[in-house]
Sequence to fold (85 residues):
Amino acid sequence: MHWLYLLLALAAMAVAIKTTSSGLMLLCMLASLVLLVLWLAGLYSARMAGRSRDPSAMIDPAELRRLREQAEARKAANNPESPAP
Fold:
């Protein structure tokens, strides 16, 4: 969707360059600037959304504790001669 803003900004700039009316040129230049800013905001938003992690994939403290206990139990089972703390 944000790419549509870029295309519209380019179209507004083309109209501003081709027109002979100074009022229409000013209006098209302002519209082009606003559309360019909207495109940049959409691009930034899309990039940040791609970097965010899925909250359901995060491990809660209880699950982390359980995983640590399992790892310690496996380590103790593989190395029986060392005493457990």
Notes: The mean pLDDT is 88. Residues 12 and 30 are 9 Å apart (CA to CA). Residues 1-49 form one domain.
